[in-house]
Amino acid sequence: MSAKSIHQRFSEPPKLLLSGRLKQKALLMKPLFSLFIIAAALGLAAGCSSKSAPKAKPSVQAKKTGQVRISHIKQEQGAQELMLHSMSLVGTPYKYGGSSSATGFDCSGMIQYVYQNALGVSLPRTARDMAAASRSIAPARLQTGDLVFFNTSGSSKYSHVGLYIGNGEFIHAPSSRGTIRTEKLSNPYFSQRFTGAHTFF
After folding, report:
1. Contact indicator for 164, 170 with CB cutoff of 8 Å
2. N or C terminus: fewer CB in 10 A for the chain?
3. For the whole model, what pTM was predicted?
4. 171, 165 in Cβ contact below 8 A?
5. Known catalytic residues?
6. Which CATH superfamily is 75-199 part of?
């Protein structure tokens, strides 16, 4: 049935005995009723085909992470603030997905919290996105406040992150033994899984 014939067939309101006011309302509704019928017919016609359209698979794309560069404070000053804030969290419980001192932290939640509270800098949420947003540097050039990354999951190059605090040490929120603490980069577990040094400065 064509859209035109549907319109002709259904554009007339039902013939009922209506009072004056109801008659006026019915006359006002006639153009809207006609538009509704035409739109419905066009929708049916557009949906007809011999094959149903394939359903689109939801796209799973990583969000593009913009580069983060800190320029409002020198690294020496920023490093002091980052170290003070991070050291005040030692002993805070590990919590997967955690990002507050009240509930606990995971590794990237701790880094995000420290940068936000010490320097007012918003960082991406995951270790992988932090690596993408920062600049890679040689391990020999690490300074306090830089990030150190590790592959602790076996499947992702950047599955764990810590904050370098100088003297070959970093602070992090590990899931094992469950609290924020410091570690040496020379610790065999971490030295074997170290994947890079990065900076936001």
Report:
1. yes
2. N
3. 0.67
4. yes
5. 107, 160, 172
6. endopeptidase domain like (from Nostoc punctiforme) (3.90.1720.10)
